[in-house]
Design a protein that fits this description.
With 346 residues, this protein is of the alpha/beta class. The chain has 13 helices and 8 strands. Helix 9 links the parallel strand 5 and strand 6. Helix 4 crosses helix 13. The longest helix is centred in the last third of the chain and has 16 residues. The radius of gyration is 19 Å and the shape is globular. The N terminus is likely disordered.
Length: 346
């Protein structure tokens, strides 16, 4: 059985490249800029989850001091039901403890996948236990981690397991996910993993169209539209420059891409914006969820937040606290990737 899983993985890696880390709200991030599968040398231990965006260790340690409203956790379908059936589509995310954003982004992607694939039971798994523990302690809601999600599939005697990550980009976390799935592979007849959001050049073009269409009402000639990605010290960080180059090439010269943790930095973005004749800046996360980075690093009131830094430069600033997962065109890309994975096991 393990040989068959290995063969399936090889097929997926060849056709679908490496899947990886998600979205991103985490202080360590994992991304890949090319359309080919990265090697282990392309990633580092520090590069463990993008843009994929979630609570930082500091936030978790200070959870008792959390004094902001993240929404009603009971509105979110955590998708840990049994009675799965023979075929399961397991949606793997890094996660976020921002309840409304989790429901409107990860939850919306899961809903789109469920609608597209009615023959598959859609279930959820998070890789970030720090997020799971935070939500459980604060809200009394327990989300499956990847071990619990896979054990649930085994206990329900699932035969075909399709795994679709919500991660933005390729990287090291894909290896961690596939290693974990391999531990359970003997329990399934077929296992296949879908691609992350940004894998091929076609994906980049579709994401570019999605984010520019989403923000077109702000494109008035006097506004700079700035997207905040996570960033990483690994070579895969070049994915942000790739998106910037694509936007510039296609005439979106008032669109800028920066990162929290790497290059292009906030300082780089501010310098570019100051070269134009802009009166206003619109800030939006280039992350699947709008979690800690979006609410604090981007839109927070601290003097080093993106909002505060642009205000200090004399710009009017508007922050759009919405994750990419809320965008229907982005959801469609995940559906396309899951379809490709499903087609490979038929």
């Amino acid at each position: 059985m393990r040989k068959m899983i290995a063969a399936a993985a090889a097929l997926t890696l060849t056709a679908a490249c490496f899947v990886s880390c998600g979205d991103s709200e985490k202080k360590e991030s994992n991304t890949q800029t090319t359309t080919e599968a990265p090697t282990a040398a392309d990633t580092t231990a520090a590069d463990t989850t993008d843009a994929a965006e979630v609570e930082t260790t500091t936030e978790a340690k200070e959870e008792d001091e959390e004094n902001y409203d993240t929404g009603d956790a009971s509105l979110d379908n955590i998708r840990n039901q049994d009675e799965i059936g023979d075929s399961e589509l397991l949606v793997i995310s890094f996660g976020t403890s921002f309840n409304d954003s989790r429901r409107l982004t990860i939850g919306a992607i899961e809903n789109a996948l469920e609608k597209a694939f009615p023959d598959y039971a859609v279930r959820r798994g998070f890789t970030a236990n720090i997020v799971i523990d935070h939500v459980n302690k604060r809200d009394g809601v327990l989300i499956d981690d990847i071990d619990a999600a896979l054990k649930r599939a085994v206990d329900n005697k699932v035969k075909t397991l399709v795994v679709q990550p919500t991660h933005l980009m390729n990287g090291l976390e894909y290896e961690e996910v596939t290693d974990k799935i391999a531990e359970y592979s003997d329990a399934f007849d077929k296992v296949v993993i879908g691609e992350p959001l940004l894998t091929s050049d076609d994906d980049f073009a579709k994401v570019e169209k999605a984010i520019t269409d989403w923000t077109k009402d702000y494109d008035d000639g006097e506004t700079a539209i700035c997207f905040m990605g996570h960033g990483t010290e690994a070579a895969s960080n070049a994915v942000y420059q790739k998106m910037q180059d694509l936007l510039t090439k296609d005439g979106f010269t008032n669109y800028y891409v920066g990162t929290v943790e790497a290059e292009p930095s906030l300082e780089d973005v501010i310098a570019k914006v100051k070269e134009g004749n802009y009166k206003k800046v619109v800030l939006e996360p280039l992350m699947v969820v709008a979690g800690d980075h979006a609410n604090n690093d981007m839109a927070g009131d601290e003097e080093d937040s993106w909002k505060s830094e642009f205000l200090a430069e004399g710009f009017e600033v508007e922050c759009l606290l919405r994750g990419l997962g809320e965008n229907e065109d982005i959801q469609k890309i995940y559906v396309e990737h899951a379809q490709k994975a499903i087609d490979s096991v038929k």
